[in-house]
Amino acid sequence: MSVLVVVECDKGEVKKSSLEVASYGAQVAQMLGTTATAVAVGEASEANLATLGEQGITKVLFDAEPRLKDFVNGAYTKLIAAATEQEQAKVIVLANSNIGAAVGSRLAIRLKASLATNVVELPKANGSSFTVKRGAFSGKAFADVVLSGERKIIAVKKNSIEALHNAGQTAQVQAFSASLSDADFADAPKQVVMQDQAGGILLPEADKVVSGGRGMKGPENWHLIEDLAKALGAATACSKPVSDVDWRPHHEHVGQTGITVSPNLYIACGISGAIQHLAGVNSSKVIVVINKDPEAPFFKAADYGIVGDVFDVLPKLTQAVKELG
Amino acid sequence: MKFLVCISNVPDTTTKITFTPDNKEFNKAGVQFVINPWDEYALTRAIELKEAQGSGTVTVLNVGEADTEPNIRKALAIGADDAIRVNAAPKDAYFVAQQIAHYAKEGGYDVILMGKESIDYNGFQVHGMVGELLGIPTVAPAMKLDMNGNTATLEREIEGGKEIVEVNAPFVASCQQPMCEPRIPNMRGIMTARTKPLKVVDAVGEGAATEVAEYQLPPKKQGVKLIPAEQAGELIKLLRNEAKVI
């Protein structure tokens, strides 16, 4: 019996969300008196996989099949199922990402497991009962969910768990083969198109986000958002009305029907704070709102606020960040 | 081509969320329910593809008790041809997936579409479970879907980009924007929806794999600390020294 952790890699690096997932898995393993094994998916490098020891992982399984570099639902599911059987894993931990949810839901059926997605805390295990806390109602509530199956799959929400860093610990990387056949690659991509991200920071992975709404008055003013984001090392985002009128691409739309983010810092510029937008951001640790309307509902959900014109305030903030050094 | 579109009945996006006194269930009192906004992409796209093909059917399926029928009728008014309601409260994703898989198999559907997730439970699970139960591919979440004969070309969103994927029917896809512009019912649609077939069937399969022990609301915010606009730079100092986030 062990805990199996699925780590997503990109260009040889383990994704930040997967460092959190690994740390989560290692802590669950400790609770259950066992060890945590990782299985790598995506474009992985053996040297970087070994550093998962810092997150408490003992062993990493790595299948060098080149077609696993891109996301393939069928093949990833089979690979993780095979690793689960080999390790006799009772708990499987993955990221609550597009990949994690797509694979986790298939695995739940294949492994006859109870699945919880969007999990925000370590589980409470008490005798045979096993409970996790997950986000529900688009960030407006939490649910404690009992996973009664003998096997449990947990998809951990990004930025909910602090990644461990035990310097110097290394994990043992082992070759692993799930004997994948062509049939497992039925949904392999014909083409992969990556977005051109401002400053190279992916919104779903970002721990700081600067976001703009209709108050920015037009796409030509977005350099004010981008300048502050660049100075802070933040990703950029927008509200639904902004992506609806194509000022910004849809993948930057944060909200109930866009993506949900939970960064350490969310700065909302010229966004009134409709309840649907709040649903996408209200698990952010610190929310800053800049709006010239003191009655904007977003101020009620904010930690810090500036009542003022974004065109005047944003350059001042960018300047202040640069002066911090 | 036979399309099956799975819709879920969810609280309107502006709903203030509260729970029953034992915190075990969502408090439905006074709440307006709508078709899950993500499912609207699946429904409209299925109708568009049927229209483009010039033949075929779009069936909507909902797992819910009788109070979901107004939204099923709304889906029929938007343009679905007929509907199936599995007469049971949707206990969890596994329970719902079993119903969809069973009735999808029974009806011999080619394409099974649904929204990325429901905005109430936010499971993002049913699509993969249905695909696995039926042994067919799942593409999730899909931003674009085109059909050419039996072959579908989809754009699957991945973190930081997209994959162009081709699969043959039958398959499952979970849908999200910018797949299409969701349609709203017109008067003619509303009139014809009244007489379109809505079949009520019994739930099948095993029970749920998970159970909600308790719902909680997030802790209240302390209240906003306002910084005068002319001293905007002070905010950055507070974020570093007080909030410690930069």
From TrEMBL, chain A:
<dbReference type="InterPro" id="IPR014731">
    <property type="entry name" value="ETF_asu_C"/>
</dbReference>
<keyword id="KW-0274">FAD</keyword>
<dbReference type="InterPro" id="IPR001308">
    <property type="entry name" value="ETF_a/FixB"/>
</dbReference>
<keyword id="KW-0813">Transport</keyword>
<keyword id="KW-0285">Flavoprotein</keyword>
<keyword id="KW-0249">Electron transport</keyword>
<feature type="binding site">
    <location>
        <position position="214"/>
    </location>
    <ligand>
        <name>FAD</name>
    </ligand>
</feature>
<dbReference type="GO" id="GO:0033539">
    <property type="term" value="P:fatty acid beta-oxidation using acyl-CoA dehydrogenase"/>
</dbReference>
<dbReference type="Pfam" id="PF01012">
    <property type="entry name" value="ETF"/>
</dbReference>
<protein>
    <submittedName>
        <fullName>Electron transfer flavoprotein subunit alpha/FixB family protein</fullName>
    </submittedName>
</protein>
<dbReference type="InterPro" id="IPR014730">
    <property type="entry name" value="ETF_a/b_N"/>
</dbReference>
<dbReference type="GO" id="GO:0050660">
    <property type="term" value="F:flavin adenine dinucleotide binding"/>
</dbReference>
<dbReference type="InterPro" id="IPR029035">
    <property type="entry name" value="DHS-like_NAD/FAD-binding_dom"/>
</dbReference>
<feature type="binding site">
    <location>
        <position position="291"/>
    </location>
    <ligand>
        <name>FAD</name>
    </ligand>
</feature>
<dbReference type="Pfam" id="PF00766">
    <property type="entry name" value="ETF_alpha"/>
</dbReference>
<dbReference type="GO" id="GO:0009055">
    <property type="term" value="F:electron transfer activity"/>
</dbReference>
<dbReference type="InterPro" id="IPR014729">
    <property type="entry name" value="Rossmann-like_a/b/a_fold"/>
</dbReference>
<comment type="similarity">
    <text>Belongs to the ETF alpha-subunit/FixB family.</text>
</comment>
<feature type="binding site">
    <location>
        <begin position="270"/>
        <end position="277"/>
    </location>
    <ligand>
        <name>FAD</name>
    </ligand>
</feature>
TrEMBL record, chain B:
<dbReference type="InterPro" id="IPR014729">
    <property type="entry name" value="Rossmann-like_a/b/a_fold"/>
</dbReference>
<dbReference type="GO" id="GO:0009055">
    <property type="term" value="F:electron transfer activity"/>
</dbReference>
<dbReference type="GO" id="GO:0005829">
    <property type="term" value="C:cytosol"/>
</dbReference>
<dbReference type="InterPro" id="IPR014730">
    <property type="entry name" value="ETF_a/b_N"/>
</dbReference>
<protein>
    <recommendedName>
        <fullName>Electron transfer flavoprotein subunit beta</fullName>
    </recommendedName>
</protein>
<feature type="domain" description="Electron transfer flavoprotein alpha/beta-subunit N-terminal">
    <location>
        <begin position="23"/>
        <end position="210"/>
    </location>
</feature>
<keyword id="KW-0813">Transport</keyword>
<keyword id="KW-0249">Electron transport</keyword>
<dbReference type="InterPro" id="IPR012255">
    <property type="entry name" value="ETF_b"/>
</dbReference>
<dbReference type="InterPro" id="IPR033948">
    <property type="entry name" value="ETF_beta_N"/>
</dbReference>
<dbReference type="Pfam" id="PF01012">
    <property type="entry name" value="ETF"/>
</dbReference>
<comment type="similarity">
    <text>Belongs to the ETF beta-subunit/FixA family.</text>
</comment>
